[in-house]
Design brief:
heterodimer, A: 324 residues, mainly alpha, MetI-like fold, 4 strands, 3% strand, B: alpha/beta, Rossmann fold
């Protein structure tokens, strides 16, 4: 083709082309910057207002106080976060007990056992679960789950209780776990499954011994997302759990190890960190007052909890994952 | 046209020179006289409405290397997957006819494909070690059979795959840290660890460089002492070098000729086989 004569055309493109090229790059950078700047802005706001709050209320008192009453009309002000942390942990742990196992097993079914036809029907249906407004879940918990549990297993349960809300949040986050985990499992190369079957492994052995370990980092991210969602869930808690910042009785077990009876927190009303923030924001509070600033301290606490969880699960996933 | 003719002649010359240098007829005869371990009778395979294999009948002798050659899409890999029922994993696949392992039809109702695959190991085209440690790769087959794997088992399998000396100090590191050729030998170690009777290989060297490929070829020769090897290959020189018996498949999933490797390459009965081997098509 080349005749070997003449100078090859190696000219730089026209300035218009170059301007367009750098323009495209600029658009991409700008879009990425939106999320980054928002995160930084949120963190900065939280931090500055929270620091102001901690200059009024000592951080030790905030973290160890067992009474939460931020409303100036309801008697003395008290900013002890412990009852809120207990409420949040109760909801998160209970929801995780529902969502993580069911979600993971559903993902294994969808990825390894379901025929493509069944999967193409089931997966979108599961994802619809994630699209239901949370207030609907809240009322479902209050109107159906609580009466059902009272009528059968736990007659002593109160109308507004942590258990129903937590179960509902668990169910709500199942699709998050199953969908992301299923994506991770489907991404495991088929050659690894073939190798397992070729060695005489059963479907169960291939699923649990090869596919799940190989997709562990994806499964772990789905757990983080689901748990973060449970920590942050507000509407279901407001509707089904009530909003009383109860401090359960701390008992002392063998060797003086403190514990809280699960029934006391599960069957009773309670308050989470997010709900207390809603309460403060929903009241007619003036900016600059102490309860108003407490909201930011709570926000920062949530932020730190979520951050620690992310880091922890990253470490755990990194350690046990079998990267392919 | 003239160019095609030219390349055909070249291939012909090449394969002839290989025959004279690489195939040892004495050994071939010794091996092909042994008893039949695997046999297929009128084996046909369909993917949906497409027929991938047509009435293949073949007897594979024990402790031998049988090569399956033929152009792309001729059904040789499909045939291989029938032998340990890996085709069961493909929904649209339907198998007719018989495959017998020591006289027992593996497609009988009472045969568990999982148990069958414990007797017939497989090595794949692309090295596919598990993302686990070298040791765990080797012991996997034993573990799924409910047997506990000892250090001796690991050593024996890795020595059998000529990999022991290279990895004995790093049994705990990931199988994926090895080079491509080492990975493939790890896959062979993994396949022989549970001590199967037959090892199926589906183009095991096609993803490897020539040096790594030649190590695998040497290994296959050793493996035939203890196991029966059935190997699919695209590489006719490889078939001539390593196999005792050769089966030639042609497009349409038809087994055209099956004989001692020396006969196939020196004096095939079917003109189409001669055309294929001398590179006139395929």
């Amino acid at each position: 083709m080349s005749d070997g004569a003449g100078t090859p055309d190696l000219q730089r493109p026209s300035s218009l082309t170059r301007i367009k090229e750098s323009g495209y790059g600029g658009v991409f950078v700008a879009c990425a910057a939106v999320t980054l700047l928002t995160t930084i802005a949120i963190f900065a706001t939280l931090l500055s207002d929270a620091l102001f709050f901690f200059s009024e209320v000592p951080i030790t008192e905030f973290l160890s106080g067992t009474e939460w009453s931020p409303n100036p009309r309801g008697g003395g002000l008290s900013f002890g976060i412990v009852p809120l942390v207990i409420g949040t942990l109760t909801v998160t742990i209970t929801a995780a007990f529902v969502a993580l196992p069911i979600g993971t097993l559903t993902a294994i079914y969808l990825s390894e056992y379901a025929t493509p036809r069944v999967r193409s029907i089931l997966k979108p249906m599961l994802e619809i679960l994630a699209g239901v407004p949370t207030v609907v879940y809240g009322y479902f918990a209050l109107v159906y789950i609580t009466p059902a549990l009272q009528a059968t297993l736990f007659p002593e349960m109160r109308t507004f209780n942590a258990l129903s809300a937590s179960l509902m949040i668990g169910i709500m986050t199942i699709p998050m776990v199953s969908s992301i985990s299923e994506d991770a499992m489907s991404a495991v190369p088929d050659s690894l499954r073939q190798a397992g079957y070729g060695l005489g492994a059963t479907k169960y052995e291939v699923s649990t011994g090869i596919v799940v370990p190989a997709s562990l980092s994806g499964i772990a991210s789905s757990y983080i997302l689901a748990i973060s969602r449970a920590i942050g869930e507000t509407m279901i808690v407001v509707v089904a759990m009530g909003a009383q910042a109860n401090m359960p009785e701390v008992r002392s077990a063998l060797f003086g190890i403190p514990y809280i009876h699960p029934a006391e927190v599960l069957f009773d009303s309670g308050m989470t960190i997010t709900v207390s923030m809603v309460q403060i924001a929903g009241g007619d509070l003036v900016g600059g007052t102490l309860p108003y600033d407490a909201m930011f301290a709570l926000g920062l606490t949530l932020f730190v909890i979520t951050l620690i969880m992310n880091v922890l699960s990253d470490i755990i996933a990194e350690r046990y994952r079998e990267a392919y | 046209m003239s160019q095609n003719q030219q390349s055909g002649d070249e291939a012909s010359a090449e394969s002839e020179s290989l025959i004279t240098t690489d195939v040892q007829p004495a050994e071939t005869n010794r091996r092909s006289r042994s008893a039949t371990i695997l046999e297929t009778r009128d084996l046909s395979v369909y993917y949906g409405d497409d027929r991938a294999l047509t009435d293949v009948s073949i007897e594979i002798p024990e402790h031998s290397v049988t090569a399956l050659i033929g152009p792309s899409g001729c059904g040789k890999s499909t045939f291989l997957r029938c032998l340990n029922r890996m085709n069961d994993l493909i929904d649209a696949c339907r198998v007719e006819g018989e495959v017998t392992l020591r006289g027992k039809n593996v497609y009988d109702e009472d045969v568990d494909p999982v148990a069958l695959r414990r007797q017939i190991g497989q090595v794949f085209q692309k090295p596919n070690p598990f993302p686990k440690s070298i040791r765990d790769n080797v012991t996997y087959g034993l573990e799924v059979q409910g047997k506990s794997a000892t250090d001796e088992d690991v050593e024996r399998a890795l020595k059998g795959a000529a990999l022991w000396d290279e990895v004995k100090d790093q049994l705990g590191s990931s199988g994926l840290d090895l080079s491509g050729g080492q990975q493939q030998r790890l896959c062979i170690a993994r396949a022989i660890a549970p001590d199967p009777e037959v090892i199926l290989m589906d183009e095991p060297t096609s993803a490897l460089d020539p040096v790594a490929a030649s190590k695998i070829e040497d290994l296959i020769d050793d493996l035939a002492e203890e196991y029966t090897v059935v190997i699919v290959t695209h590489n006719m020189q490889q078939a001539a070098r390593i196999s005792d018996r050769t089966a030639v498949f042609l497009t349409g999933g038809e087994l055209v000729e099956y004989d001692d490797t020396a006969t196939i390459f020196e004096d095939p009965a079917d003109d189409r086989v001669e055309d294929y081997i001398t590179g006139k098509f395929g």
